[in-house]
Amino acid sequence: MTDQKLIPEQDRKAPEAFLSVRDLRIHFDTDDGLVRSVDGVSFDLAPGKTLGIVGESGSGKSVTSLGIMGLHRSKRARISGEIWLEGEELVSADPDRVRQLRGRKMAMIFQDPLTAMHPYYTVGQQIIEAYRVHHPAASKKEAKVRAVEMLDRVGIPQPDRRVDDYPHQFSGGMRQRAMIAMALVNDPSLLIADEPTTALDVTVQAQILDLIRDLQQEFGSAVIIITHDLGVVAELADDILVMYGGKCIERGPATTLFDAPEHPYTWGLLGSMPRLDRDLQERLIPVRGTPPSLINVPSGCAFHPRCPYAELTGGRSSSELPVLVEAGPGHHAACHLPTADRHRIFADEIAPRL
Ligand SMILES: Nc1ncnc2c1ncn2[C@@H]1O[C@H](COP(=O)(O)OP(=O)(O)OP(=O)(O)O)[C@@H](O)[C@H]1O
Ligand code: SF4
Ligand SMILES: [Mg+2]
Question: Rounded to an integer, what distance in angstroms lies between the CA atom of residue 93 and that of residue 108?
């Protein structure tokens, strides 16, 4: 089946957004077979807005973001589709050009700053280096002033002293702050944060999310936040994209996705979201089963082996790939259930338990 036919019409419009991803596919040739890590993902991001990409482990969230940053380029990776950043297409661009944009126009922070930062260089040296790569005319002294300024801005106490510390001398939360300082030192217009708070305790998590929000307002960057926890993006994201098995299965404005989610997998994610106003033990409708293999992806809707409603679609769930269909303004979901059935199930069975 050619997947081109499956791209909904609205996904084929000329890209006008600040970031436009079109039918992105990133597959890896491995000894066990072809891993379809990202398999036809499309979305738009407006300047200064926040997109949350949500899904279970192995759904392709990190590979999507590494693809945008041009960091997936292993010999065994096959990439197709289009990534438009401010009118420039990155999939077909020269790797040197993408390298120039990385750090300057787009920057990334990772879950674990210890692996992303070099242990043998001070925090300051690493921020200075990140700055000077893109500002070759800047002297070391100027770059250090900028590094101290950035550390101060992300809330590191005594930044003029701590700038000379090594990463291991920082706490986990401070390291994450330092990595944010490094990512923002060149004032990028796109910041990708891949599980930026997963390794941190709950109080520090909230502080880091607040910091990202404040900085976004100050710097005006567009942000992609990647997480397996819908709670993390509940207050931060303007739009949410839900990934399952390398595909986008639902996307839309955050408020709509929380109030009127259309896809049974999103219902499961919402149901398993810990809530502050309830006992943490009370996980409502956990998504049963395990995430799909990306080598032998289940036929039809990849969620069908786990979906409680698969038998309501007259066999289509296991035989036919559902495409994203508009469910409301800017809201799309890929599920064979007739809309009226979906709304009835959500109203009767799901909403009362959320
Ligand atoms: N270089 C690679 N070669 C082969 N397979 C890969 C490679 N990188 C990622 N994958 C596979 O692609 C799939 C998606 O990986 P990805 O890291 O994007 O998941 P994720 O959604 O970020 O999960 P997590 O929440 O655990 O971080 C996984 O099955 C992973 O094993
Ligand atoms: S297409 Fe079928 S299996 Fe997939 S989410 Fe909808 S009902 Fe469930
Ligand atoms: Mg990941």
Answer: 19
